[in-house]
Amino acid sequence: MWLYLAALVGLYYLLRWYRERQVVSDLRDKYVFITGCDSGFGNLLARQLDLRGLRVLAACLTEKGAEQLRDQTSDRLETVILDVTKTESISAATEWVKERVGDRGLWGLVNNAGIFHPLCCTEWLKIETYVDVLKVNLIGLMEVTLSMLPLVRKAQGRIVNVSSILGRVAFFGGVYCSSKYGVEAFSDVLRRELQHFRVKISIVEPGYFRTGMTDLLWSLGRIKEAWEEVPSHIKEAYGQKFFDAHHNGVKQGLLRCSTNLNLVTDCMEHALISVHPRTRYSAGWDSQFFFIPLSYLPTSLADYILTRSWPKPAQAV
């Protein structure tokens, strides 16, 4: 009985492996637009796809980032300045893309641009921080997608939305998690609505990786800034001892972040070039073997596993 079951599971994965190895044709004629290419995943993906021969349209927030990327890539890659929080910037970028892709349409849209807030308790953050994160990570992603969608539909292409494992298991970074849960929901609805247009939607859920958003000194500095600006009654509720323990816990977590960004960009590339892309990609060992299994546990058990080592606030009851 168990032997037959093992054989069936093995056959399933063999067939999936075979299907996923099939690559779409004429890659050199396909255009891919990527947001957030100044650094991190977006920058690496732009260089990776350029080497693959695709026509990369890379959106950067700064001219400095765009210039550095152009210096590292072929003449096929083109850059444009884009601020995903501004409608006029998105409209201008869409027209720029339309001029380049022409009647072929846009094969791939990769919504990668994102920001992180200070890695601290939800109560320590100002509402302005909540708004800023949602504007970039969720509203900006939605607006870019809706603006580019006619071009993607024309090419019967792909949309790749970068979420996070924190879009599946939320246990710190309240507004960041909220934005990524929104990305998951938006992507699920879009995938179901666009299936008859032969547009495929994939979600990439990275675990913990070392990028500009998780830079150690920058992240720890922002935690201290947030704590210093917290109202006195909140400081009293948590206490300095709690902050010190939290600060050290974040530091240890950041030191364990993976430096192999290719684990993420390889998922993005597969979603763009495979004949049969996956609906979801869990990128990173922590994502695949800890957080995804954790997401299927009873909530009370998951809560215990995630919070058992957390420090207690000064006024805890």
From TrEMBL:
Highest taxon of source: Eukaryota
InterPro entries: NAD(P)-bd_dom_sf, Sc_DH/Rdtase_CS, SDR_fam
PROSITE patterns reported for this sequence: ADH_SHORT
GO MF annotation: an example: oxidoreductase activity
Keywords: Oxidoreductase
The UniProt record lists the keyword Oxidoreductase: yes
Protein's name according to its UniProt entry: 17-beta-hydroxysteroid dehydrogenase type 6
Oxidoreductase is among the record's keywords: yes
Example GO biological process: steroid metabolic process
Family listed: Belongs to the short-chain dehydrogenases/reductases (SDR) family.
Source taxonomy: Eukaryota, Metazoa, Chordata, Craniata, Vertebrata
